[in-house]
Amino acid sequence: MPTAPFWWAVGVNHHPREVSSLAPILLAVVPSQGPAAGGNTTTLIGVGLSGATAVNFGGVPATTFTVQFDGAILATVPPGVGTVPVTVTTPSGTSNTSNYTYQAPALPTIIALVPPIGLAIGGVPVLIVGTNLAGATSVQFGAVPASSFTVLGDGAILATSPPGSGTVPVTVTTASGTSTPASFTYL
């Protein structure tokens, strides 16, 4: 139990000996959400953060952290799942918690194929327009992989259609999963 009133802990009395005996106070984590893979930087805002010896996200140590000043720490978020409590530990104790939410990776989506038709012999350049396409590991025309493909960015892939017949589902696979299909018709 601290011997000084709370308002002393926020620097009103300017008595460092009394302030340093209090556990750190964590006010916010900004941003308070990010990818499940971690690796992003977040800022922990609080009081009494100087001398931090540990920053934990749900009990998992931050990949790295740097104390900017008594009221802020920059931390690299470790991988994780769900909503976890974040704490800061100093020689004076461990802070209260503030939550951080890991977001599941977004699946790729296909919005359009341009053109949505092609020759049965294949070889037609097809622009796949969508979202979360960066990092594509495969493009399928039915059960057949595209002859080749180039990721142009998060929203586009240029694929070359393989030989085929009829109408087939085109899908894109990334580390997050496989998209819902879009129809491509062979002439």
> Got a strand count?
20
Low-confidence stretches: 4-20
Give a short account of the largest sheet.
6 strands, mixed
The secondary-structure class comes to: mainly beta
Helix and strand topology:
Elements: H1 6-9, H2 16-20, E1 25-30, E2 33-35, E3 41-47, E4 54-57, E5 60-61, E6 64-69, E7 72-76, E8 83-90, E9 93-94, E10 98-103, E11 109-114, E12 117-118, E13 125-131, E14 138-141, E15 144-145, E16 148-153, E17 156-160, E18 167-174, E19 177-178, E20 182-186
Parallel strand pairs: 2-10, 12-20
Antiparallel strand pairs: 1-3, 3-7, 4-5, 4-8, 6-7, 8-9, 8-10, 11-13, 13-17, 14-15, 14-18, 16-17, 18-19, 18-20
Question: Would you give an account of this structure?
Answer:
The protein has 187 residues and is mainly β. The chain has helices at 6-9, 16-20, and strands at 25-30, 33-35, 41-47, 54-57, 60-61, 64-69, 72-76, 83-90, 93-94, 98-103, 109-114, 117-118, 125-131, 138-141, 144-145, 148-153, 156-160, 167-174, 177-178, 182-186. The strands form 4 sheets. Strands 2, 4, 5, 8, 9 and 10 form a 6-stranded mixed sheet that branches. Strands 12, 14, 15, 18, 19 and 20 form a 6-stranded mixed sheet that branches. A hairpin with a 2-residue loop joins strand 6 (64-69) and strand 7. The termini are far apart. Mean pLDDT is 90; it is low at 4-20.
Question: Short description, anyone?
Answer:
By secondary structure, the protein is mainly β.
